[in-house]
Amino acid sequence: MARPECESPAVSGPPDSPETDVGRGPRPEGNAEVADEPAADAVLVRRAVLGDRSAFTTIFHRHGPAMFRYALNMLEGNTQDAEDALQATWTKVWVNIETFHGRSALRTWLFTVTANEVLNQRRRRRPVPVDDTLLIPRPEKAHLAPAAQLDQRQLQEALSAALTELPWRQRASWILREMEGQSYEDIAQILDTTPTVIRGQLHRARTTLATRMETWR
Amino acid sequence: MTTHEPTQEPRRADAASGSPANTQTLIDLASRALTEHADQRWVEVAPRVLSTALRATRRSLPVRAHAPGGTVHVSEQVIVAYLHDALDGHTPGTAVAGIHVNIAGQDTFTGVLIELIVQYGTAILPAADRIRAQAATVLLELLGPAATAINVQTSHIHVSDITTQDPQEAPPTTQPGPSVVNRPTDSAARE
């Protein structure tokens, strides 16, 4: 039986509202936020479970950028879709953070939730491609001058387009490994597979991307 | 957050040589450009995402409270958040590891269990007494006479861990807390 949602008519809400908690003042002695060393993820989780919104905000700012990069690159650079996926992710994290028991790194758990929400977002948007085989048409040479080809934005768009043509699991593996520096074991946990499979996916992704990017040399 | 080196312009002579190493250089540069692009977008969307997430309501049991105008209900999560805010870090050498509100039938508050992490060398009993008094004050404020009708003895203080470091820096204990008394019989099914 699901526990009922309950709003308190007697009080306006938890001690710190979303609008005010970010700038909440320091606590007395012994508080992790006061120390120079940033609080460990496990400490922040313990406090967030107990409703500490400033701890949750710290987690959000610590891991949110990497999760957004993953979502944005998995959703073909569509900012709105990535925002929707991250919104669903962080809402679930806030509501269910007590279900994180520390059996993996917090970042790995967060990426797992993000990967699921990105998949849900893709399903809502269009049918999921199920064929993992890759047909690699060589793109025509760009019509820009060589100097322009090496422009940062051109490179970014070239890699983004090449990533888009990778199968989902290869793309996810490459982003998590090459852009976010996750270990094979963590990627396997995030994508619910084995490190051996991840190694194979990464090898194929690297080969395909190298082929794609040859046209930009 | 993964740190990335500043974007560097590729050496065109190298890039034109066509070696695999240069292809990897291009991919690395493009990857950094993608990262910077995403981070710029994130700055725009992060405030919206955070504020919306924090407005989501966690699952919670209602607790009956007595207000001047009559009986009202307070969310269990509200009680936990207020207690944590009032207790955590306010007693030297202690940190709150968990708070469990005990609720009997008809949403009746019967007590609260507060788990503590205590730094080695801290006098546990005085610290527990201080926290118990602080908790009673918070509960009186939130629940009114519904809290004072409950003997403070039912507000348990449980020391779940002892650490030699700052207890605020201690991660959560992996051992589950003691069973909570006076829970509704179907509480397990609600999880």
From TrEMBL, chain A:
Gene3D superfamilies: 1.10.1740.10, Winged helix-like DNA-binding domain superfamily/Winged helix DNA-binding domain (1.10.10.10). PANTHER family: RNA POLYMERASE ECF-TYPE SIGMA FACTO (PTHR43133), RNA POLYMERASE SIGMA FACTOR HI_1459-RELATED (PTHR43133:SF8). Belongs to the sigma-70 factor family. ECF subfamily. Residues 1-38 are annotated as: Disordered. Residues 60-126 form the RNA polymerase sigma-70 region domain. Residues 157-209 form the RNA polymerase sigma factor 70 region 4 type domain. This is Sigma-70 family RNA polymerase sigma factor. Pfam families: Sigma70_r2 (PF04542), Sigma70_r4_2 (PF08281). Keywords: DNA-binding, Sigma factor, Transcription, Transcription regulation.
Automatic annotation (TrEMBL), chain B:
It comes from the Bacteria. Residues 1-22, 160-191 are annotated as: Disordered. Residues 1-14 have a biased composition (Basic and acidic residues). This is Asp23/Gls24 family envelope stress response protein. It comes from Kineosporia mesophila.
